[in-house]
Write a structure and sequence with these properties.
The structure is a homodimer. The first copy, chain A, is of the alpha/beta class. The first copy, chain A, has 17 helices and 13 strands.
Amino acid sequence: MQAKRTAAEASLLSVSLDRKVKTPLHAQLADQLRRLILNGRLPVGSKLPSSRKLSAELSVSRVTVVTAMDQLLSEGYIETRQGSGVFVTVTADLPDGAVLRPDYSQGIGFEKPFEMSEALEIRPFQTALPDLSLFPHRQWSRTFDRIWRQPDATLLTNQDPFGWPALRVAIADHLAAWRGIACSPEQIVVTAGTRDAIDLIAHGAFRKDDTVLVENPGYKSLGLALVDGGLKVRPVPMGPQGFDIARGAALAPEAKGAVVTPSRQFPLGMTLPVARRLDLLSWARETDGLLIEDDYDSEFRYSGAPLPALMSLDEHGAVVYLGSFSKVLSPTFRLGFLVAPHRLLDAIRNRLLATGPRASFLVQPVLARFMAEGNFAVHLRRMRRVYGQRRDVLAAALAEQLGDVLEMGDLSAGMHAVAWLRGDRKSTETDQEIAARASGAGLFLQPLSSYYAGKTRTQGLVLGYAAFDDARLIDGVRRLSGVLNG
Amino acid sequence: MQAKRTAAEASLLSVSLDRKVKTPLHAQLADQLRRLILNGRLPVGSKLPSSRKLSAELSVSRVTVVTAMDQLLSEGYIETRQGSGVFVTVTADLPDGAVLRPDYSQGIGFEKPFEMSEALEIRPFQTALPDLSLFPHRQWSRTFDRIWRQPDATLLTNQDPFGWPALRVAIADHLAAWRGIACSPEQIVVTAGTRDAIDLIAHGAFRKDDTVLVENPGYKSLGLALVDGGLKVRPVPMGPQGFDIARGAALAPEAKGAVVTPSRQFPLGMTLPVARRLDLLSWARETDGLLIEDDYDSEFRYSGAPLPALMSLDEHGAVVYLGSFSKVLSPTFRLGFLVAPHRLLDAIRNRLLATGPRASFLVQPVLARFMAEGNFAVHLRRMRRVYGQRRDVLAAALAEQLGDVLEMGDLSAGMHAVAWLRGDRKSTETDQEIAARASGAGLFLQPLSSYYAGKTRTQGLVLGYAAFDDARLIDGVRRLSGVLNG
């Protein structure tokens, strides 16, 4: 059999004949072919395989095939064309309600993807995206092939709901080296992303309707995931140093937890000072509260020593750590992880057993080996260097062309920068209006105000730069200058 | 650089030195090495690379490296051993609170997966599992490599939240050919499984606290997903013909929807008659209710013509169809899909945009090509033949050894069979007790009663057979006979 088939040939593979029932095989075959024609799976004009080929594919005699064909010919569903074969036709009296569906066969296959919705083209200054053109695709593909061409039996049987064991080991090692976290692989759960992680924590560590503090501005999907998990969310306004637990506790004394981004507040970018971290841990100890540390892109710090993760300071099992591979590696993986204190592991396991594992097991062993062989760390270091250079390019271009209009936020880390409008530009136009105009100039600007809950919203622009090379960044700043100065 | 590194060498890749800050490079390097030693990432006894190698890897002068090493030597973190290099030692005065984490490096990598929880070994008669040893791994791996070795730019930019366009086309074609459903690819959403699909439907088609009817017995995770989606669930007892909407409507007149398994009731196995299907559609039209058709393994029908899907009878946009690749292809993919009527697409899109895409984009284009080239249909046909033979083997062995004890349910389709205890065996022992004893005999029996909600539970055994070859099935029946007759 060939690897490539026409759509019509592929559809014939669905035919299933049963020798145990009373209906003769030729009648069964005619019935099923009729159905394929009526539902459009064998489209009008498509050519049927020869009776010889069909009898071989379906493991029935040629007499059976020819008898079925004769029936359909007499009903007008198919016709023979001299010298060229048998074709599906339209002359048949179609029964009421028969559906002739459009022929999508043009859209089949990878080479010509069917365009169903507006293509989500990546434009400057889209956020939270790595530069996938720099991903080591060849190396990754080779690793995939080494593991899956002749997979080890354990790959096919071991589906620990916490995730592939070797990947959890690799993540623990990565966290120790890059984030100063000393955890054991038992504490790690591989997830399909932050949303999944929040679901596990919401059901494993809280009661329904518990209140959780979140940062304002902050990552809205995360708040939505908390609400979906049955929790109440209380946004806490950020001061210049970031999250202040005293303020949060005053706003919601009943709070049972808090989601924080201490390494780099999202989206504002400030690092939470050590004193504030210790305050958080004290609050958690006193109230028996849980801290959820969202450490979304902390691998990319370009200058200064990174503060270790909040979790590395925790001695009382008060912190759950959330990590993601989407931003540092590739969003196509849909992989993230959480690190839970031991006291929560049983509850998380129960939730996992009730709802099933989250992340694809196809990718996990490949990523585990990719990490264990050091390729992940090499890639991170390379990206850190590249993104650091891009940050410099962006900052220089903005300073030159828009220094009198925009004031830049912290640029020492991450994959995006925040820019505030200076002076009298503040009041003339909202960031939403600027973003709308920028869209017409081929730019994607995230208005800072869109990250806020409530009425008090600071105006500004969030500029992602990691996914764009120097030329696109410079061109993007030129366009942005046209938008803001034009 | 070599592809393989020691764990210690890999951890050194995380070192990041910054020329812009005041701290000298050698002090930065000493700090970071100290941290790696303290958190155990450079375990006691591990050998450091030579200063020449380290200076090359970190792009700093050898003087910088040697100065940093001298500092750590003087602090006692490392020691030189004559002629063999520099090693991490324990003689240092470790500060309070420093963590020397256990060395998991033995567990790193794929060859020796770290055993963290009891291995989830697959035993007869576990359910809902395909036989992964028959999966065309080589072909799949080749397809993966063709797509991802040098990926098309659209692969890296197009992340339509509904899923990879070509996969949606391939699914539409598959549904037309195998299930008689005429839908367009626009109606298809690729999900990470049934749980994700229910989340989209719960938020896209219902209001909070709406009541949804579910089958009793039924698929419990699905009911849990509905509850997690903010809905109320009302179980409807199954009669001999399956779901009866009149009974459901009498139990819960306020119901706004129903989840049904018309092709093959889960887990009992009966097919819902056409009259009952038409009743369902009438109810939906009259009450503006939504029917959710869970078509979990309908591809595997061994005898008789399959009834077309409920959705194929629907002319009023009253049915959402749920399909899964976990059971027919591989649970490692974590891929499923839903087909929604046009009227729900906007609401589903809003939910997707708020929560992000669900399924890994790494697998989707590979599966799309696998399907478009006909390999999926070939695999399904092969599995249908194999599973049909296994069903025969299981039925024959059960009839021979346990015919007087067990009464078998419908065996014309699917991947599992239901067995009821005959006569006086009914009352002597619960199915839970039998399952517990069978576990000791190396079997995995799912008690039928575990699929029920409420107090009225029928006793029986659910026997998955698809994942086990003839020898294991025969051995399994022998063991089961020992359990039941012993």
